[in-house]
Every structure is written in C-alpha cells, then in structure tokens.
Design brief:
The complex is a heterodimer. Chain A is mainly β. Chain A has 2 domains: 107 residues, Immunoglobulin-like (Sandwich); 371 residues, TolB, C-terminal domain (Neuraminidase, 6 Propeller), CATH 2.120.10.30. Helices cover 10% and strands 40% of the residues of chain A. Chain A contains 6 helices and 37 strands. In chain A, strands 1, 3, 5, 6, 8, 9 and 10 form a 7-stranded mixed β-sheet that branches. Chain B is elongated, with a radius of gyration of 30 Å. Helices cover 69% and strands 0% of the residues of chain B. Among the domains of chain B are: 282 residues, no CATH class; 90 residues, no CATH class. Classes of the chains: A mainly beta, B mainly alpha. The interface between A and B is large, with 35 and 43 residues.
C-alpha cells in the first residue's frame, strides 16, 4: 500500500471520529425540548427495583430517532455514566455499571434520555425514570430450559445456567449430544449448585442426580406408577424427594383465543428416599378419587404441599367440559422423616370455591408466604392466558393477587435463597414465549415492579422464539457440563425399589393403570 | 504423447470449449426439466442474513461449508440464477482438475476424459433431489486444497498442509478425510524417498489429534457429526455407489492421470479420441440421467411449486394434464380446487387414487411440511398453525412454514408472533418483499378482513370451541360445520370425502342444506351423485330448493346409454367409459 493511501485512510478515520464526537456533543441542556413523557423502552425497565448485583440493564430506546444520549446517575454519590447510541441500543459497560450499582445500593439510579433526529436543531428530552437498587442481593445464577413453546415435537433442548451478575451463559445440558432426548424438570436442593437433578426422557432417559460434581443416573419408576416421576421437589434435608407421577395428555383447541390444554388423567404423589433408593406411594385414606400433583416442601420439611382436585375427567372419554370443571385446591400433609409417613390431607386454599385452580405452590424460605399460580381451571396454567400469581399468607390464609401480573400467563415462579426475590416466567412480551421476570419482595410482602432478565443485546427478546422454561435460582456456578451428562448417560440406571408395604401395590397398580390414548389426545413429547 | 503434434493433439481451446458445452448442458437441464430439484432444495431451508443464523454453523467442523451451501441454495428460488450458480459449481470441478493437470504434468495437461468422468458423476448425483449443494462444495474443497498443496513449492508443501489441516478440517468437515486419502495416494505414488511415509504419518496423526480435540474439547456435537458431517447419508444405493466412485476418482485422480500420461505410444489426447470418448461418456450419462429422472417426482414438486406460489389454476391444469400418481400431488390438486371453490365441481377431472386419503394427510413426520394446507383451507387455523409450527421445530425455518405461521398468526390476531415470523422472513433475499407486504396487516383487523386470502379465512374461523381430532382428522369437518354452517370449504371437503368413499346416500342428503349455505346451483359432482342415487332408489333426494341442471341430466343419459352399449364388450368397457366420462363421479363410482 502506498503512503498516500495510508494517509488518506487515516484522514478519513480521524474525520469520522471527529464527526462522531461532534454529533455526541450536539445535545446540551440549552438545546433540548421537554417531551413531557417517559421514553419508549424495550424491555421496560422504568422504575423497576433491581438487586445490587444484577448484570447491566441494557435496553433499547424505541423512539425512531438517529441519535440517543443516556445519562445514568447514582442518586446520592453523583457517579454518572454517559452513553451515546445511534440505533437506540443502550449497553452499559460492565465495570462502570458495577460501580454505578455499588454507589446506588439502597438508593436509586436516575436515567435521563435525550434523542435527536437527523437535522434536528433541538433534542428531545424525556422524563427521567429510575432504577431502584435494593440492598438485597439476588442469587448469582439462574438455570432454565431453552425450548420452543411448541406442541408435540421438539428438536434442540438446552438447560442453561446464566449468571445474573453478568451475561455469561453456559449450557448445563444439551440434547444434541444426548440422542435428542427430551430434558424437562430440573430441581435444586435449597438452590444449591452442587445438588440438583434433571429428568431426561428417551433412549438415555432417567433421573440424573448431581451431588458434589458426581452424576448418578437413576430410574425412579416402579411398577404401579401411572407415569414416570415428574414435578420434583427436594426435601430441605436432601434425603427425600417428592414427585408426582402423572398420565398427562394434551389436546388442541379450535378457536384462536386458546391453543393447548394439558391435563392429567391420573396423577398421584410419590416419595423417593435417596438414601435407601426406595419409592413410596403417598396414599390417602380418603375414598374420593383425586388428582394430586405439583408437590412442594415447606422450608422446615415438616409439610408437603400439593395441588389436588376430585377426579372428574373420564379416562375413557375426556371431554372439554370435564376439564373445565376440574379445579385444584392447595392441600398439605404433615411429614415425619423418621418414619417416612404422612399425615392426613388438609386444605390450605380452597380454590374450587372461587372457581379457580391452583398450580405450582412455592413457599418462601421464611415459611410465611406461599406463591401459587391461579388459573380458571385445569392443571397446566402455562397455556392459560388468565393464569396469574397469587401470594398466600400462610399465617392468615389470605390470598392476594400479586401486582406483578400481566394480561398474559404468569407461572413457574421460584424464590431466591434470601426470600427477597421471586423469579417467574411470563408470556407478556409476545403471548407465547416465556421470559424470566424478577420482582423484589420486601419484608411486608410488597412487590417491586418486575423486570425481565437483562441481556447483552436488549433486542434479543424481540426476535427470539424460544421460551425460558422453569427458571430456578442457584447459589453458584454449576461445574458440570453437557459432556458430563453424556458420560453419565452410559451408566446403567440405578433402578429404584419399592418401599411400599407389600399389600399396597395391587390396589395402587389398579388405580394407576396405563390408559390408552384417545383420538383427540397426545401425550406430552411422546 | 508428442506435444509437438499440434494438428492432432487436443489443446486448451478444445478443453475449454468442451467445458463450455457441458456448462450449457447443465444449465439447460437444471433450468428446465431438472429445475424441480432446485425448487425442492430451496424449500428445505431458509438462509438468513443474521449472526444468530450463522452461529450454529460456526460451532461444528464443516458448518461453514454448509453455510456457504445454504447461501448459494437460496438463489434456487429463482430459476435462472439458481441454474446458473449450480452449473457454475458443477463445472468448477473439471476446471480445477484441469489446473491440477497443468501442475502435475505441465506439458501434457489436455486430457478430456479424466475431466469428464468426475463432472458427469457429480451431475448424476445432482439429479437426485436430496443431493444438496454442500456435497458439491465438499468435493470442490477437496480438490481446491489438493491444488493448493501441489501449487506450493516442494520444500514447504507438506509442512504447510500439515499445519493447515486443522483449519481445513474445520472448514470441510468429513470431506477432509477424503483429502487425507488423496494425500496418501499422492505420497505413495507421486513422491519419492522414504520421507513420504513420514509425511503420511504426520498428517494422519495431526488429523487424529484434530478429530479428538474437536470432539472432546472444542465442539459440542455427537461423535458421528465429526466423522460424517457434511457427507450425504441417505439410503439410495445408486447414489451411494455414484458418490463412492466420484470419491475414488478424485482420490486416485493424480495417480491415474500421471500413469495415463506416462504410457507411451498411446495418444489418448488426440482430438478424435478425446471427442469420441467424450461423446461416449456424454451418451452414457444422458442415458443414466434419463433413468434417474422421475417425471412423477418432478410433477409433484411442480404442483407444490404452483400451490406455494398461490397459482392454483396452474396447479389444477398441471395435474389434469400430467396426472400425478402420488398422494401428495393429488392432495395438492384437491387443495388447489378447494381454494378456488371447485372441489365438488372438478375433483374427478384429475386423478383420484387414494380415496379420501388425498384430501387430508395423516399426522406424522412424513407429511409434516404439507399437512397444514388442508386445515388452512377449511379455516381450522389453529391446526394449520400447529402443523407449520411442528414443521419449524423438526426441520427448522423454511419459507413455507414461516409464511404459514405468519398468515395463521395474522388471522388469529396474534400480531406479536406474526411480527416475529415476518421479521425472520425479512432477513432473506427472496421472501423479504412478501414479509413487508404482510407486515402492513399487523394490528389492522380491517385490512386483514379485506385481504383476498386472509379475509376469507377470518370469516370461516370456527366459532365454537372444541378439541381438534387429529388422529381422525375428517371428524373435524362435522364439528367445523356445526360451528360455522356456511363454511363452504369445510362443507365441500366433507362432501368430497363422502364421494371419495362412495358414500352416496350421505352425500346427497347434504344437498338440502346447500341453498341455506348460499349455493345457487349444486356442484357438478354432487349432481352426479344425486343421479346415481336416483337411478338406484328411484327417489330424488331433497334438493332443498335447488335443481339438477339439464346439462348434467343429459350427460347422465348419455353415460347410461354408453354404459349399456359398452357393456357388450367388457374388455373395452372401462376404457370407453373413461375416455368419455373419466372426469365424472359416475366413472369413479363404477370403475374405481
């Protein structure tokens, strides 16, 4: 290359840089015009409460202008970040963001945005909005399954761990090296990164338990169970797990307003004793036939909460009306871990009485409140647009609709280990794909405006089709990788034994016989 | 061969003229009779200009080769550029081989035969519609890397190849293994001294290490991917043999070429011999191509092309002119009739061999990419959407599944998802315009209602909620009609099903509802069914205020008269009736 060309190139570069600086300086207080409103943001982070250790809250300003300037200023310390953008995408540099957060703990960050179009003589100044920075940290990792919110088929499924303090995202499980098996439930013991389990269905199927970096492939299904173990919940002590065992069906609706109905023909509860490798049926003395699902332990391990509905759905000919009349109540049973026995069921929240149906009970770590998903009917609220989160005060029994809800489905919620943050899956963005939203819950139960998991590219949600399924808080980075699961899949599954009294099995087996599919039914992920 | 004998020897001009001719042949073939292959392949994927689309191709050896292939394949959407690109790719093989010849034996490079055979083998493979662009590019990469190898000065060439091999494996994937064999052959037969064994050993060790590091550390893929991707793996014995012969040809190419040119007293590259051998190869290939070419497959793809392009009249005429024996061909014919409101007027003008099976495709992987059209036609939009969604999950983005998802989302008022699907299509060259047109409908129910296609579907959406019957999909029709009695498309599909199962009584019982639904005349085939019913029972069904046209009545009389006459010659009966009344329900009823 000739010297002249090099000099010309440098000249153009310098001019370009100067131009950018010039444009950047184009906005000043004297040349602005107040819009009298807040800017349009994607995602909407205006006035949300955030943890002091959250990743940069990048966002897009959707005002259709050619130049944007954002000032993010710590409330008291005065520390400020200035960001310019031509496309409205605002990305906070990691280090400055952390400094901004540290300076704003227990305080707020003021975000002031200006925009200008090409040739505009004055810039538009929007009303500021605030990020309220809580003192309560959030668990450092979130684990979720990335899956297309589809009907029947699946292709690539990943279970991912995402740092909440940065944008680091790594796969924990990838089915492309697991013969395309389906992975569904994942569950952590007290949010611990070193003790968790994942269910895998298919040729390499089983329940994979991770304990201190070692994976064990087990098969907890014993004769007489209606289906495989699903909806797991760890007893706080770590020895026991409760599951429900369900025969799940799905049917598809004809009208545009509705898509899918997932329902159980049979569902019952089981207890898995990891120490003895035994499965015990959690039976009822009640003669009424019930569907029982979504078990969840109290933090002290003394109660098992679950959802229960009288069985209205015909196994032979399930009808829409029967499903509509199925309302699950919230029920609990006491548990004695010494004898592995349960007490009688007692209703905690009578949802049927108000023509609602409970799913996903999750109790706060302090044991005082419980969050449920409440839908109009049925057992699987994910496809019910009316499904909302309700908080139940376990001391007073009062249930209140949380103010974090939207017009779309809210479900799959989990508490952070300190009980100050709740993550839930919401479909509010596009009505179909679940996104993880976080809300701060103070000691009085007040909820902050929820915010969606920040992404390095804030426009990601606008084009992404996959759902963030079953978001779970984790207290650290999980060391295991997809290759470890592939290695563990070569283990011969440890078959669970029956821990039931000898005479209980036939009755249970009769109650839970395999039911053939009907013409309008599909099993989930056959 | 004496190169001074220029009068007889084949020269560069001859070779390039021959290659030019072959290019022309390839272009004409893929532009006209073989264009269905290009169309089929183009609809199997969707190339997007986005980093997210590129990413999965970056994380596996051979991924970039596939990415490049997908990039080129998108141009198949247009007949001329698609054929041009494919022909250029095919002709690149002999062009590169020619350059290898010049490197191997600088004074004796104009042998036609060794250039023609690999070209025709690749051409023949390309005639299989599952032979994708990446397979061609894979072979080209093998030859290109070999050409690079022999172009580097002797002293460094082996070291450079060994150093570059990991990168080459990343680009070419399993095609790198074909190169290894080629390299071994080159060393064994064309290199001298004992060092050649060291070269081979070094490359094999590097290759093994590359494979292991890629598998265990770098890329998260199943082991088969590292060994086979992107080689073609599908069950077709003829194709596999051709692929193996081509691979062998290329692997042994330098050896064969070197030995042929060293044989003394044989002037293989005289003009006469070269052209003669070329013509023979051309004729053999032409014959094989003729054997491979399946007009039925071509026909089905052609009907699909018309249907996907919304050219229903052309799809109908095509099937009537070139009857498809294939279920899919007949399914799309019926769909095109339904979309033009001619199902019960014209369905027997085309071949119907599968009874009611050609109206609705059963649920399953085999029909995942086509089953939605029936549901779309009858207005069961949720189910059409589901099929398209399932296809997208199983096979990835394809033009048709995304278009169907966008249209059904718009009809259902799900504008946010429609926007997402259209956003994906906007990142393509050939579907961006379509997406922009449909994007205008987002959030505007009035525009959707007045849209010539979507508006009609919106009007026939089911009003009652019911569970869709997907194992016995025909059972949805009565539910649809109960929900929306004036849904003529569902009604005619229902009647067509009765006709195709020869359930005349039930079919003619439906005539009484027609006037109420809005019919001013009875569809022709239903009239024909009514006359069969009348002929058998002497009772005219309740026509609900409509009448059977005198023209149908008159044709029935002719049919009956001809039938009585032709019956005297049973061996010719069917032929005679088909010739005169093959497009009627009467013929179908009596002879199918």
């Amino acid at each position: 290359m000739k010297l002249r060309e090099i000099i010309s190139g440098l000249f153009i570069l310098v001019c370009g840089a100067l131009l950018c600086i010039r444009c950047g300086r184009g906005i000043s207080e004297e040349k602005t015009m107040q819009t009298g409103r807040k800017p349009l943001l994607e995602p909407d982070y205006s006035d949300v409460t955030i943890p002091p250790n959250i990743a940069p809250m990048n966002f897009c300003v959707s005002e259709g202008k050619n130049f944007y300037r954002v000032f993010a200023k710590s409330g008291t310390s005065g520390y400020q970040i200035r960001i310019s953008s031509r496309n409205g995408i605002i990305r906070f540099p990691g280090r400055s963001w952390r400094k901004l957060l540290n300076n704003s703990k227990g305080d707020k960050i003021k975000i002031q945005i200006y925009s200008a179009g090409r040739g505009d003589k004055t810039a538009s100044k929007y009303d500021p909005f605030y990020l309220y920075v809580s003192d309560d940290p959030i668990d450092p990792y979130l684990v979720y399954r990335l899956i297309h919110p589809g009907y029947y088929s699946w292709s690539n499924i990943r279970i991912v761990q995402r740092s909440l303090e940065s944008f680091e995202e790594t796969s924990l499980f990838e089915n492309r090296i697991m013969e395309k098996n389906c992975a569904n439930c994942h569950s952590f013991n007290n949010n611990r990164a070193d003790r968790f389990m994942i269910h895998i269905r298919g040729s390499l199927g089983g329940t994979y338990f991770a304990e201190n970096g070692i994976l064990t492939r087990t098969d907890p299904k014993i004769d007489g169970m209606p289906g495989s173990a699903t909806y797991p919940t760890w007893h706080p002590g770590g020895r026991f797990m409760a599951f429900s065992s369900n025969q799940v069906r799905q049917s598809f609706y004809s009208i545009p307003e509705k898509n899918i109905e997932v329902f159980d023909l049979i569902s019952s509860l089981i207890l898995y004793d990891r120490e003895k490798n035994e499965i015990i049926s959690i039976t009822d003395s009640d003669t009424t036939k019930y569907l029982q699902t979504f078990p969840s332990w109290s933090p002290d391990g003394k109660y098992l909460y679950f959802c229960r509905a009288p069985k209205h759905i015909s196994e032979e000919d399930p009808e829409l009306e029967q499903i509509r009349n199925t309302h699950y109540d919230l029920v609990r049973k006491s548990f004695d871990h010494e004898t592995r026995t349960f007490g009688e069921a007692e209703i905690v929240f009578n949802a049927a009485k108000i023509n609602k149906s409970v799913s996903f009970p999750r109790i706060s770590p302090d044991g005082k409140s419980l969050v449920i998903t409440l839908a109009d009917y049925g057992t699987f609220p994910v496809w019910h647009r009316e499904a909302d989160l309700y908080m139940l005060n376990l001391q007073t029994g009062e249930a209140v609709r949380m103010n974090v809800n939207s017009d779309e489905t809210e479900s799959y919620h989990t508490w952070s280990v300190n009980g100050r943050w709740l993550v839930f899956s919401s479909r509010r963005m596009d009505g179909r794909s679940g996104r993880p939203y976080f809300t701060h819950i103070d000691s009085l139960g007040n909820q902050g405006k929820p915010f969606v998991l920040p992404q390095e590219d804030p426009a990601l949600y606008g084009r992404m089709l996959e759902s963030f399924n079953i978001p779970e808080f984790v207290n650290g980075r999980i060391k295991l990788t997809p290759r470890d699961f592939a290695s563990a899949s070569r283990q011969i599954p440890l078959k669970a034994l029956s821990g039931n009294p000898p005479d209980s099995l036939p009755a249970q087996a009769e109650k839970t016989k395999e039911i053939p599919l009907k013409i309008n039914e599909r099993p989930i992920h056959q | 061969m004496n190169r001074t004998n220029t009068a007889k020897a084949l020269g560069g001009i001859d070779v390039y003229l021959s290659l030019g001719f072959l290019f022309l042949v390839a272009f004409v073939f893929f532009c006209l009779p073989g264009n269905y292959i290009l169309y089929f392949q183009e609809t199997q994927s969707l190339f997007l200009f986005s980093g997210e689309y590129l990413h999965p191709y970056l994380v596996r050896p051979g991924g970039l080769l596939e990415y490049a292939a997908k990039f080129l394949t998108q141009f198949y959407a247009d007949r001329l550029p698609g054929s041009l690109i494919l022909s250029l790719i095919l002709i690149l093989l002999p062009v590169m081989l020619q350059r290898i010849n010049r490197r191997l034996i600088p004074g004796n490079s104009y042998l036609l035969l060794p250039l023609l055979i690999p070209f025709f083998l690749m051409f023949l493979m390309q005639a299989n519609y599952y032979h994708m662009m990446e397979y061609n590019l894979g072979f080209l990469l093998v030859i290109l890397f070999y050409l690079f190898f022999i172009s580097v000065p002797d002293r460094h060439r082996h070291t450079i190849i060994i150093i570059l091999f990991p990168l080459y494996y990343y680009l070419a994937g399993a095609y790198a293994f074909i190169f290894i064999v080629l390299y071994i052959m080159h060393n064994l037969f064309l290199e001298k001294g004992k060092r050649k064994y060291l070269n081979i050993a070094a490359l094999v060790i590097i290759a093994f290490a590359t494979f292991l590091i890629s598998w265990k550390l770098l890329f998260l893929q199943p082991v088969q991917q590292f060994l086979l991707f992107p080689l073609p793996v599908f069950e077709d014995a003829g194709y596999t043999v051709t692929f193996s012969i081509l691979a062998a040809c290329l692997v042994f190419y330098p050896v064969i070429y070197r030995y042929i040119t060293q044989v003394k007293n044989i002037s293989l590259n005289t003009r006469l011999r070269s052209y003669l051998s070329g013509i023979i190869i051309f004729l053999i290939s032409g014959f094989l191509l003729f054997k491979i070419y399946n007009p039925q497959t071509a026909g089905v793809v052609e009907i699909e092309r018309y249907v996907f392009g919304g050219k229903y009249d052309k799809a109908i005429t095509y099937h009537e002119k070139h009857p498809s024996l294939n279920l899919i061909g007949q399914y799309f014919y019926n769909y095109a009739l339904s979309e033009t409101d001619q199902l019960c007027d014209r369905m027997f003008s085309g071949r119907q061999d599968f009874g009611a099976g050609s109206l609705i495709l059963p649920w399953g992987d085999a029909h995942l990419n086509r089953g939605s059209y029936y549901y779309y036609s009858i207005g069961l939009i949720n189910e059409a959407h589901r099929w398209a969604y399932e296809e997208m999950i199983v096979y990835g983005y394809r033009p048709q599944n995304l278009q169907m998802l966008a249209k059904t989302s718009l009809i259902n008022g799900d504008y946010r998802m429609a926007g997402k699907y259209l956003g994906i299509l906007k990142k393509t060259i050939f579907y961006g315009g379509w997406a922009k047109e449909y994007e205008k409908l987002i959030g505007n129910p009035g525009l959707i209602l007045s849209h010539p296609e979507l508006g009609l579907k919106l009007k026939i959406l089911p009003k009652n909620n019911f569970f869709i019957q997907f194992n016995e999909p025909q059972n949805n029709l009565p539910l649809m009609l109960e929900s929306q009695p004036d849904n003529r498309k569902a009604f005619e599909y229902y009647l067509a099903g009765l006709l195709l199962t020869k359930n005349v009584e039930l079919a003619v019982n439906e005539i009484r509802k027609m006037k109420e639904i809005g019919y001013t005349s009875i569809p022709r085939h239903i009239e024909e069914a009514a006359l069969i019913y009348y002929n058998a029972t002497r009772i005219l069904p309740d026509l609900g205020g409509l009448t059977i046209s005198p023209e149908t009545q008159s044709r029935f009389n002719q049919y009956f008269t001809l039938y009585l006459g032709a019956r005297l010659n049973p061996s010719k009966l069917q032929e005679t009736m088909q010739k005169n009344f093959g497009n009627t329900f009467w013929y179908f009823f009596h002879f199918k």
